[in-house]
Design a protein that fits this description.
The chain is α+β, with helices and mostly antiparallel strands. The chain has two domains: 2-104, Pseudouridine synthase I, catalytic domain, N-terminal subdomain (Alpha-Beta Plaits); 107-239, Alpha-Beta Plaits, CATH 3.30.70. 21% of the residues lie in helices and 28% in strands. Strands 1, 2, 3, 4, 5, 6, 7, 8, 9 and 10 form a ten-stranded mixed sheet that branches. A hairpin with an 8-residue loop joins β2 (46-47) and β3 (56-66). α1 crosses α2 and α3 crosses α4 (195-207). The chain is globular and about 60 Å long.
Length: 268
């Protein structure tokens, strides 16, 4: 039995999320079907982090176990030959030691893209969230800094979230503008359900001057989702990358250079 690790990108616009669901189109189902054709045997993949309906991935990381002997190019090229156009395997490598796509991860990185102009886009209607009102990205960035550190994120957690604990460790969060796009980038050890979208919704309210800059800190203290404002659209949300200890040999997204040195030295 060997374990193979894959990096996968996908446009989540036409998917009902990552996780397999009966009679619904999901990324996991498409990937498993494609790899199973290469193996001529059933393949089950395990991901670093499940994404919701409409959410995209620049680099989802998955692993699978198999007794079938195929070289890495076969998994890469054969898998892509059997995948639909909105999913691609971008790299493949053998697993090292006890690697697990989910449990070996130290941090996840998400990017949220907001198209901030008067007109919607004809080209990227599902790749960015549209906001008509002007957003002050400087205020959004300053307000977001209150979220850094370990907190109870109950005010930013979906009411149906099944996680055992609302506590998460936020490593960094940055908000900046690129022409008519406002981009939120953030990394944490893990995320509760809808956490990024709820953070984006709060920051957009602050950026439109509908809420004060200390609202993020107040929400952390309140620990009440009903006080937390609107959940932002899934369109514009990307799983950007996953950070693993060096021993696993998985190339890191440059954004993880923002992690503190003590986090980058973590082994587990």
């Amino acid at each position: 039995m060997s374990r193979v690790v894959l990096g996968i990108e996908y446009d989540g616009s036409l998917f009902c999320g990552w996780q397999y669901q009966n009679e619904r189109r999901t990324v996991q189902d498409e990937v498993q079907k494609a790899l199973s054709k290469v193996a001529d045997n059933r393949i089950t993949v395990h991901c670093a982090g499940r994404t919701d309906s409409g959410v995209h991935a620049l680099e989802q990381v998955v692993h699978f176990d198999t007794e079938i002997n195929r070289n890495l190019d076969s998994w890469l090229m054969g898998g892509n030959a059997n995948l639909p156009r909105d999913v691609r395997i971008i790299w493949a490598r053998p697993a090292v030691d006890d690697f697990h796509a989910r449990f070996s991860a130290i941090a996840r990185f998400y990017r949220y893209v907001i198209l901030n102009r008067k007109m919607k886009s004809a080209l990227i209607p599902h790749q960015a969230t549209w906001c008509y009102n002007f957003l002050d990205e400087v205020k959004m960035h300053e307000a977001a800094q209150a979220l850094i550190g370990e907190h109870d994120f109950s005010s930013f957690r979906a009411q149906g979230c099944q996680s055992n604990s609302p506590r998460r460790l936020m490593y960094f969060i940055n908000v900046y503008r690129q022409q008519d796009q406002v981009i939120i980038e953030l990394s944490a050890n893990a995320f509760v359900h809808h956490m990024v979208r709820n953070i984006a919704g709060v920051l957009m309210e602050i950026g439109m001057d509908k809420q004060p800059m200390n609202w993020t800190r107040e929400l952390l203290e309140i620990k009440d989702r009903s006080q937390g404002g609107v959940t932002a659209s899934p369109y514009g949300l990307y799983l950007g990358g996953v950070y693993y200890p060096d021993k696993y040999g998985i190339k890191k997204h440059p954004v993880f250079d923002l992690l503190a040195p003590d986090v980058r030295r973590l082994k587990y």
